[in-house]
Amino acid sequence: MPLDLPLRRCDSPRLDSVQASEPAIAGDGPFLDFLYPPQALALLKRSSGHQWERRNARRLPEGFIRASRGYASRARGRGSQTGRSNTTDGSTVNETRNTGDTRASPVEERHNGQHGKVRQKESHRPKDEMESEASVRAERLLSEVNDGRKTKSNTTTSISVDVPIAGSHYDIPSATEFSDSPGDLAEAESRTTDRLHGMLAQKRRVAHEDPTKQLAATQRVVELYDSLDAARKHDVRLRIEMISWLSLQRNSEADVRCAALYHALPVKSRTLEVYQSALAVFLRRGLHVHAVKLHREALKNIQNGIQVTKTFFAYAVNEHRWQLAMNVHAQYRLQNAQGPAGEELFWLHVSETPQLIRKALRLADHVKGLHKALTINEQVRRFSGRFYAEALIQEFETNNTVDVATTYDAKGIPQGSIGHLFELLDHLDDDAPRFYERLILSLVTQKRANYQYPRMHRIVSYAYLVLRKMQHRIAGGVLMALLNTLQKYWARLRIQRELHHSITVPGLLADWRKHHGMVSKAGMLRLLSWYASSGRQASFNNTLTRYKENYPAYEDQKAVLASTIYLHARRCDLLKAQAAFDEAVNLAAQHDEIPPLACWNVLIHAYSRVDDLEGGLHRLHALVDKGLKPDEYSFHPVMEMLAKRGDVEGVSDLIAQYDALAQKKREVAFTGSLLTALVNSDGIDEAEDVLKDAIKEVKTGQVRGSLTGSFNIVLTGHALRRDIDATMRTYRWMKTEGIRMDGNTYAALISALTTHRQTDAAYKILTTIMQDEMLEPTGFHYALVMTGYVNAGRSATALEVHAKMREYNIQPTASSNAIFLKARALQERERSTPVHDGKYVTPLNQTINDLRNVLNASSGRDLASKEPGHGRGLDPTESAIPAAYINFLIYVHGRRRCFVAVKLLYKDYLKKLEQYGGENKNRPPLPLLAALMTVHLRAKEYSEVEECWEIAREQADQLAKVVPVSQLKSANVNPAETKLDVPQLQPPASSDAQEVGFQINSPLLAKQQIPPDDTTISTQAVQALVTEGSQQPSAPKLSPARQHILSRPLRFYMYALAAQNRTADLLSTVAKLFGQGYTLDNRTWNVFIELLCQASPPLVLLAFTLTERFLIPHFPGWAPVSANGAAHTPNPSAKTEGLEYIRARYLRPGQLMPQYRTLVILGSALLNLRRTEATGRGRQDNAEGMEKYVGTVRQVRLQAPKTVFAVQSMPTVDDALQNKLLRRSR
């Protein structure tokens, strides 16, 4: 036997010897072969079939066959090249026939390996180095985001390969060389089977255009099959191949034989391929009864029978055989074992049918005829309603929003195909209400990822308004489904512009009472939950009163206890939330119970809303002490408060205690809290390591939840640090892991672009990319874009963006309102000139009017918003939002010396707090205090400045203190053993304990080191003191994320102290802050250095020494400037940061660097010090104790050589600052 033949019938021939030949010609086999003797038949088969190697003429005993030599006697002919097929990339591939052996051949493995490497190289190209200019990097970011949405699914190029016929390369023996022994007959039978397999494999891959050739090929295959013995004919695999092959031949003989083979095949051997092939034959021959039986059997016999349903249903729809389509659906529903999920899968396949709206119109005509014939039934109504809904959904999904909007007239009546469909529905008469109810239910209960209800609301509203006009009692299920949908998407709907033809919640509730007398219990509970989450206090109270009247039982009252507490929690009213909880405790005590766990969780959430960490921890301990088992909703609010403070250790401790108490899978939200803590404590690199571990835990099932929020935290952290390279890297990482992106993902990308003054590109993400990704922009996204335009000095453009937001009816938020008022104030200030009216300056009247309109429109619902609090500051209480509106206006009017307007604005603020019921009217938040300090500073009311400073100090001590996380009593665990292995950050600090008389105020800080080559030193390292005398006691630890919160108030207080020439108080104030653990931002540090140089006497040595220690290590040098200063124009971003003529453009938060103005002032102070030494320095009355801080030029050069060099190498520029400070004596 030749060595290259397959060992078994189902094996593939060896690839290195398989060669394709030309297909056999039909009709070359023997006619009436049963009349021939076996010897003649064998000769005919050999002469007309495969070519075999020459055999020895010596005969062996009967029943034996001589073994093959393993090589052919003759060279291969021209047929040896026909088995090759050129692929799309120019390579040649040989592929074996797959008849059960699924292992890849060595050639295929080599081929796949090469192409896999190419694809891997293409998909993992080495990252190009980022250009230095931020604009180029920002454009690349936008381009990458835009390209990523276009290539979400990686398409693989398929390689078309012709399969060679088995045994087609053998030699033809002479006519005299044949054998009639049983062994030869068995060998001939085997060769016939192999030849049949080869023909089946080839013809399944060749398209048959010529019917004559198809018929000839069919006859030849049938003849070969009939020539086999009974055992081989009954082979299951061969029959399956025959059925599959015959179903592709479009002739009667093939169809008849395919049907016969299908019926002869045992039911247990029928696969999806068999059912699909037989179904194609039955449908082609019009045998619908057989097709229905086949479909029923396939649904019972195989798991993926829905594929048969999909094919059968598509045929019925395309042929407009609607009764058959309904029967297919009915069969599927009867045999569906997956329940609602299986039903949704069926309609998902239906939605993939192209041009579904046209088919829906044909169905509507069919239903109209059934209605006239009085043969319509419930099955037809159910099927048609869902089919119409799928057609409408497809029409909306495949068209642009603008195109969809044009399909309605001014009255909201649909036009075009949609309008025609509704016209056909109008002829249903008495059956129309049921059709519309089915249609509405189908439209509002979709659960697809790309489905967005706001685009469908107009069609739902039209269908419901038509239903309302009918004399029909609307079903409660329809009303409940509409209520759930409206509440879910209420904030995104453009109801205000379409009240005359749009369904609303009040209108829906009115219809509910009209048709059913009252809203159902489930409907009331849904309303109470919605009103509580959105902060609608009046609506909540009215609904709660009705609920208690209709459902007075204790169990019914118990169901709404948590909602009452949640209402006040969302409105940031902790006192009312505690009162509601106390009422729940009293009500439960009357029945010898304690409030359910949900009430405790909501109360802890109320503490988190006002950032009361101590109160939240106390309630968590009380919950455990009562014997309740806390869950993720108990721990997460406390974790979030710790994360905002940057308390990594506290978050890790709580996670460990949760694992010990809850004893169930951890939530991804806990990882998010840990990531937030790391980012806020300047440990974003450690946060990335934690995120890598979280990905593994989610994939292995150890942690549950979506990783989208976790990636968004890291992405936002990089964006806020103005690290666009890291932002792009994290974005690519997110795409590689296949993480779903949401609105916060694109908000982080928008923020990264706006910080680099690429706001136009950021606006494109909002208007184009998010729309294409079916993500609805919110007021927060618009606020980010408007902030970018305002920071770039384009206030008018920011107002245009706000107008677009209102035009699209996007609900404004506190963030968008605050930046809108700022843009309006800047625009009005630019257009107006300071005109004195008596002794006061005219206020910005237009902006003040806009402010009052915003305040009048705002309520506690603004506090309930779940969007990020951009621009609200640290205070989340009821005073945060009105303070955010009024901060900048007070600051602007203070700078304009319009003090009357400031008083009026502050009165408006207090009035709004009274409406909120605020308890902190005399304790404005820190941002508002800083604005008030600027006003008092301008008015030279230094005592009021100091009073505001003391209030700010007191608030900061409360906000920034670290609250220890104690062990819960029920947790019998060792914290040292259960804490997560999270890297602890060690902020760098100076090791020089004493320099020119000043010293470190904390022993801990004195032991820490500042790396001399650190280029991104944190503000936590800035702990130098300027006090004199003995060491201060160690200060309490402050939260890492809040050590900087006094920077802005301190800046204005230092101005006030300097104006009063209270240099000693200035030094002692800064010393006390550093001793407590507070830090200064870059601007405040530079102001402090400038004030030291401008003091009387100038503390030159102290200023230069502090600059040398904390600012100059990160100085990048000067930009090249020509002698006349014309070679370098300061960038607007550099001007904003105070980095004119410096090789820097942006500073990330916490980064310290001397500003241009500071270096000029240092140069002026050094010149004055040199001049004083040359002329002789006289003693000043207020210089007692300050001489050692003044120093000499020699001491300055010794203590601050780098700073002196930076000052001396400063480029000479003809600007007002250098002319005033450096050239005034010339």
- Catalogue the unreliable spans: 1-29, 49-132, 152-185, 204-208, 400-406, 971-1034
End-to-end C-alpha gap:
111 Å
Number of strands: 8
Figure out the total of helices. 57
Helix proportion = 55-70%
How would a crystallographer describe the biggest sheet? 2 strands, antiparallel
Percentage of β-strand residues: under 5%
Gross geometry: elongated
Q: How is the quaternary structure best described?
A: single chain
Strand order of the largest sheet: 1-2
Structural class, from helix and strand content?
mainly alpha
Average of per-residue pLDDT values: 76
Radius of gyration: 41 Å
What features would you describe in this structure?
- The protein is mainly α.
- Helix content is 58%, strand content 1%.
- It contains 57 helices and eight strands.
- The strands form four sheets. Strands 1-2 form a two-stranded antiparallel sheet.
- Helix 27 packs antiparallel against helix 28 (613-625), helix 31 packs parallel to helix 33 (708-720) and helix 42 packs parallel to helix 44.
- The longest helix has 22 residues, at 182-203.
- The model is unreliable at 1-29, 49-132, 152-185, 204-208, 400-406 and 971-1034 (pLDDT under 50).
